[in-house]
Write a structure and sequence with these properties.
- The protein has 306 residues and is mainly alpha-helical.
- It has one domain.
- The chain contains twelve helices and two strands, in the order αααααααααααββα.
- A two-stranded antiparallel ribbon has the order 1-2.
- A hairpin with a 2-residue loop joins β1 and β2.
- α1 runs antiparallel to α12, α4 crosses α7 and α5 runs antiparallel to α6.
- The termini are close together.
């Protein structure tokens, strides 16, 4: 992985995000998963085996296709830049976060609900403004890892091909990794694989958020001990780390009652007491932006010297 290409991909992601109308590999992976679900057997054991086989095939196939494209003579460098920046989602995450916040502050609760519904898997139709703000804070902090820190980590380790192997697994987890009758067996392997792959990046993401907080003079006493304690409350071994870090750095709590697929879930409380308002959310977006820059610079330094 060339350090200049690595940093260029981060810069293009921050400038362009996910341009509307552009082709995106995640959409192709998603379309493949919709089609493949129709082929899944009905027996639980066979569904598990089918889901595992699809996970391995999509991850390996994605890596192979990207590898072949980035090694093409003449255009391989452009392909590498495209796949590297397309695998990162910090630019679009910050843009969407600012959009939801602007809608809330303009009094357009309906627009804010619709906008946040595109970022979360929970039901946003009945949310009040407080619930929308909390949902936004939770998805921005969690997706800082899923959409940026983890892909960046695998881009650093193995270039665009390894990054897209991870992205395939992550996309499968986001589509099939639910504990519902429909996906419980089909997505079990993808969910476990994503847990393993994101284990280190999630903790690096939390560390970067704490570091960004220090730069912005947000330095809660004993913050790492509190993050570790809160992160263990989550069912996911990874999601709680960036969420707890963002909550403690920004001084507002996460968790509580949410509706997923018609089922009410009481999520564990993370961070201090108190809800999210406009200033807290603006601080969160600044912290996430700084943390992303810090991870990118650190990755570039590692590539340059090693």
């Amino acid at each position: 992985m060339n350090p200049l290409l690595f940093l260029a991909a981060v810069l293009v992601d921050r400038l362009l995000g996910d341009p509307p109308g552009w082709p995106h590999p995640v959409r192709l992976i998603g379309a493949a998963l919709v089609w493949l679900e129709r082929l899944a057997p009905e027996t639980p054991v066979l569904r598990r085996l089918f889901g595992a086989a699809v996970t391995l095939a999509l991850a390996g196939g994605s890596a192979l296709i990207v590898h072949l494209l980035v090694t093409l003579p003449g255009v391989g460098g452009l392909a590498a830049l495209y796949f590297a920046f397309a695998g990162l989602a910090l630019g679009s995450l910050l843009h969407e976060g600012r959009t939801v916040l602007a809608l809330l502050e303009s009094g357009d609760l309906g627009g804010a609900r619709r906008a946040v519904a595109g970022l979360v898997s929970r039901d946003a139709s009945g949310m009040d403004a407080s619930a929308v703000r909390r949902a936004l804070a939770e998805t921005v902090s969690e997706n800082f890892n899923d959409g940026f820190a983890a892909p960046l980590f695998f881009l650093l380790l193995g270039g665009p091909a390894l990054m897209w192997a991870y992205k395939a697994v992550s996309t499968m987890d986001s589509m099939w990794g639910y504990r519902t009758p429909r996906f419980r067996d089909l997505g079990w392997f993808a969910a476990r694989a994503d847990d393993v792959l994101a284990f280190v990046p999630a903790r690096l993401a939390a560390l970067a958020l704490v570091g960004a907080g220090w730069m912005l003079r947000r330095r809660p006493v004993g913050v790492w001990t509190r993050i570790r304690r809160d992160a263990r409350r989550m069912d996911s071994p990874n999601a709680g780390w960036p969420m707890a870090a963002a909550a403690w750095v920004c001084g507002a709590g996460m968790g509580g009652r949410s509706v997923y697929f018609g089922r009410t879930v009481d999520k564990p409380h993370l961070g201090p007491a108190g809800g999210w308002d406009g200033p807290h959310l603006r601080l969160l977006l600044r912290v996430v932006s700084r943390a992303g820059t810090g991870l990118a610079v650190a990755g570039g330094v590692v590539l340059f010297f090693f």
